[in-house]
Amino acid sequence: MAELRAAYGHDPASPRITEVVDTLCARSPEFAGLWARHEVKGKTRQAKHLVHPQVGALDIQFSAFTVGGAPHQQLVVYQAEPESATAAAFAELRSSAGRGESAQVAREESRLALSDTRLPA
Hints:
The chain is an alpha+beta fold. It is 50% helix and 21% strand. This is MmyB-like transcription regulator ligand binding domain-containing protein.
């Protein structure tokens, strides 16, 4: 919530942001209560959990840095913890990309998807 308010603070006159906040406040008393706290916090470091179709679960940390001289711009760096299962999964993806396997897997998945949607003659 505090991060949404920080984004809102960059452009409080935006009709789209106002519409989204008004809609959420009307539909969710919990959201309205949190919004009324007026807490503001920019993203600096957080974790994300993703699922990749080839390597499965990925737990990624990210850090966001303000870019001097570029208002409202951030540099976001994503990384896996060293020696983690996610770091090993990234290594596996790099290896398969180097061998062209990612493109090959994508072509095969597309071919299979198309064969599943064809109508019988």
